[in-house]
């Protein structure tokens, strides 16, 4: 009700240039500016006011010196209600939102008053030109929490009321101001938590002035040291959660020491006066656009026992294991499942750092799929999966080795049999009844047969990428169909000697001579050496298919084929060949250059043939399409 | 045969009066035998009216419906395509839904009527 006494919206209107309005505003802060001149008389003192219109506050309001006496006689003080009779806007740097309101004439309507409303600082974006031309620069300014220009010394011009345009001597909007909580205008009792102003974590943003949250520390990392251009430093991060959401908070150096030992995982705290900035998605995967930094003014108070009961332990955003197939590698997710089996501890040495790492792999299952999860270091050493417990992971990293795998990071939170989610009981019941005995599709088993660690390429890429020309053979997979098969030379008479493989000469008298073994045999074996042309939408390529792969391709053994050939059963052979062609499959090929007399040719051998797994092929295509789209996330 | 646009439940209104193809799971067949409820790839429920008596279709089956969107946002269907269990066992409905949305998103890249 008292709000109606103040002219809401007036501050923004003034800043935008409508200065004829005689708004009624409230003084919410007064600061005197040191003058750089030696003039001892009070007439040169300059007062800077923070004014409120009931909804918003603006802190760059300079009081005309002729009204200094109002402050000195305490007629004008904090919470006084004033009417602005003459005001002008001074745009020092409108692009960056550095404007000031010059109060030339005002009248105190009411000296003493209660604070009206709960005004919040005007966001800089509102102050800047409406076209938003400078918004991007503004974001950076806020995120770095440092003014983009050097903070100006707060000197006032000596005796005149006119502010020199563009002078560096003028205080700026961002002058050493943290986006949140300007200390110089801290009200009384600014050193303790204001429990009346508790808000939800999901409403936190950098433009808020006074707030308090009541949150539980759901995860706390160890202190880490780092070095940057400014020297060595240390930090730790923790995740805070309340009933509305979660947010990551980080403390550096002094605050790191101050708060790391104080904050305990699982406990609830009141927190106020921390800085907020846009979340750095590279390191922070919590479900919040912003992240918090504890600074010099941050206040943290433990919650009394019993007061924090309504705050959840942790916020999970589980996805089913099968959904992980659709997520990209190096992203993180939350997942829950039952530990079906655990591997032994393995020690691997990193090629890059020569350091030894301990790891252990768990097979995690849910009702539709299973996936391999890697634990590291101490977690791996201490893990015991013999009770097939339910494990929940928050912020676990997705990898694409052999399909999809999960790997714990430093920041991953692991909870055993978590009580916050009904999934624990659901999974337990399902596993004990059926899950433990069934085999589920395993995302970590290379869903694309034949494309494990071999890249999938198009046939035209063979030429464009010069595959096969190097010293080592290249292995690729292609999705193609057979368009031609040389059926007359599909099989040959092979030496019956195990491991010989050489073609024998038919001596037409029941004997077959093998030059390699230097022996004559009375029999031979039929063997496949199929020359086939495969094609995809980009081109075609002749390949050679031997043994098992040829058998898979043609559907009959070499022996059968050979017999048909001997019997001159042309129509049967044509039937076989026809069935093998024009049918898409995944071919895994080995490309290597051969020197044959003077010619250097690339030979393509088929290493495996497999049917196409359409669902995983489709998912791969969707992934590729998404990667080609301009990034939106 | 005219081209039927592949759509999901949320696109029905946009395609009013046009020939469409919808793949979904049968949730219910009405006692009349001419009408069925279909759960589309984006988990919406639509009504399909067939000119002929519906045969060989059971709740839980995945089918493809070819027809037109009428003015009540239902499908007036002239053909129902049924599949063998082996054909639908591995069918990833969610991926099909993503494909349908991609077709809409990139109509210039989705070739029809070659």
From TrEMBL, chain A:
Keywords: DNA replication, DNA-binding, Metal-binding, Nucleus, Zinc, Zinc-finger. GO terms for cellular component: nucleus. Residues 475-621 form the Replication factor A C-terminal domain. Residues 6-110 form the Replication factor-A protein 1 N-terminal domain. Residues 321-415 form the Replication protein A OB domain. InterPro entries: Euk_RPA1_DBD_C, NA-bd_OB-fold, NA-bd_OB_tRNA, Rep_factor-A_C, Rep_factor-A_N, REPA_OB_2, Rfa1. Gene3D superfamilies: Nucleic acid-binding proteins. As part of the heterotrimeric replication protein A complex (RPA/RP-A), binds and stabilizes single-stranded DNA intermediates, that form during DNA replication or upon DNA stress. It prevents their reannealing and in parallel, recruits and activates different proteins and complexes involved in DNA metabolism. Thereby, it plays an essential role both in DNA replication and the cellular response to DNA damage. Belongs to the replication factor A protein 1 family. This is Replication protein A subunit. It comes from Adineta ricciae (Rotifer).
From TrEMBL, chain B:
InterPro entries: NA-bd_OB-fold, Rfa2. Pfam families: Rep_fac-A_3 (PF08661). Its main location: nucleus. SUPFAM superfamilies: Nucleic acid-binding proteins. GO terms for biological process: base-excision repair; DNA replication; double-strand break repair via homologous recombination; mismatch repair; nucleotide-excision repair. GO terms for molecular function: damaged DNA binding; single-stranded DNA binding. It is found in: Nucleus. It comes from the Eukaryota. GO terms for cellular component: DNA replication factor A complex; site of double-strand break. The keyword Endoplasmic reticulum does not apply. Keywords: Nucleus. The keyword Transport does not apply. Belongs to the replication factor A protein 3 family. This is Replication factor A protein 3.
